[in-house]
Amino acid sequence: MLTHPTLEQMHQLGLAGMARAFTELEANLQSADLSHAEWLGLLLDREATERYDRRLLSTGTEVSAELGG
């Protein structure tokens, strides 16, 4: 697999969600029909969602530990 320089930069900046979305969009033939703004929106949505999910998992683990679970 060829590595795209943008993908490498995303990983270096800690944007793992964006990097995963970028890889998926590159592999999806239908993504060619998306505008630049739509592409960017999907990348940002994925990053925000993954960060939110990590925060929820972290909080849930902390609460479970405090409750003795």
Notes on the structure:
The chain has 69 residues and is mainly alpha-helical. The protein has one domain. The chain contains three helices and no strands. α1 packs antiparallel against α2 and α2 packs across α3. The longest helix is centred in the last third of the chain and has 31 residues. The chain is elongated, with a radius of gyration of 16 Å. 12% of the residues are buried. The mean pLDDT is 89.
User: Termini, distance in Å?
Assistant: 42 Å
Overall strand count: 0
Helix content: over 70%
| Rg calc | 16 Å
Largest beta-sheet details: none
Task: Give a short synopsis of this structure.
The chain is built from three helices and no strands.
Any chance you could write out the topology, listing elements then pairs?
Layout: H1 5-12, H2 16-27, H3 36-66
Helix pairs in contact: 1-2, 2-3
